[in-house]
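Supplementary Methods S3. Complex input for the adenosine-5'-diphosphate-bound model.
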Amino acid sequence: MSSFIELIDVKKSYGSGSTAVRAVDGISFTASRGEWIAIMGPSGSGKTTLLNLLGCLDQATSGALLIDGTDTSQLRRHELVRFRSETVGFVFQQFHLVPHLTALENVMLAQFFHSMTDESEALRALKQVGMEDRASHLPSQLSGGEQQRVAIARALVNDPKIILADEPTGNLDAENQRIVFRLLGELHNQGRTIIMVTHDENAGRLADRRVNLDHGRIKETLVFSAEENQDFDEVLEHLWLRREEETVSPDASAAPSTRHAETMEFTDAQWRRLIATLTGIGLVAVVDGREQFTPAGETRARNVIRRHRLAERLFMDVLSIRDEQEIESSACKFEHILSPDVTDRICTLLGHPGACPHGSPIPVGVCCEEKRVLDPAGVANLLSSIRK
Ligand code: ADP
Ligand code: MG
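Predicted complex, serialized as structure tokens:
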């Protein structure tokens, strides 16, 4: 079966001759239906150009772009407009709402290009983003976060299979970023394919997969699935635990087999392959036959350990779970999914504990250094979001 979205050696240049800018320089990748992909990379690396090609706002200089079996490079201009309005919904960093139209009219504008306008459908879209009460407000009467929610309603009013978002939270504060990511998560749960450009590492972690661009090309080694990233976390966690053991009993370092802790779930071959990959992406270095952290690897390992041990404390102290196995398996899940922000809030809620229930130290975070205290209203909020 062919992929839902397939790019084959797609190139896009601006200008010609020696001054040509190759904004997208030979990109090939596929996306499955319902996948959430984060496109990341430095400014000028071609993210927006790629997204515009995916959304048929622009056509490639060469290469093929197939969406749901349609070769978009073969479509004529008017066919492209129709295809776009039926297939994709756009969310931009700058919202792009028409200033003299109300929220409702802005949403209906998207219907206009698609088919017939339908006010009740437009209201339903506003309701999905929690903005039905503000239907008659002008963009200038709405906050940035609210404007972006209207823009999301506009993107989904035609029930598109694909949502394309170009730095959708680039102009929003932390609270509104959370709201927008939650909405994108809901659209993802509805089975839509989401391709999102972002600078935000945390946002990148929400996605099933990241595609890292550099100078218009994919940095191949950095495209990993969520499962692969979890394996990396497991390996880094192992290395961290091994180092802790060695600090407690230095003799252990003589025995090369200490990595085979009881919980080890990788075969030797898998371990070797993972270490090779982690070395390749600069998280681990092998010195005298022993795996060691690079500074980047150590930071990532510290964060995994911190999430794991804080989760253990949370289950034990707040949720009163006493079953060791349940605590361990829940903590193993949480160590991959907690965002740094939620992690810090849990740490704050628990009063910045120094050790996990088994006595192992919990690495400190920014919240510990700042001695943050949780405001009481935030506690219920946090607990309900964790229980979900
Ligand atoms: P990003 O979104 O990753 O910041 P862009 O896709 O906007 O990157 O841009 C990639 C490259 O293409 C940049 O060097 C940019 O200057 C160039 N570029 C983008 N759009 C145009 C255009 N319309 N005309 C000429 N050059 C462009
Ligand atoms: Mg851009």
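The CA atoms of residues 89 and 156 lie 6 Å apart. The chain has 14 helices and twelve strands.
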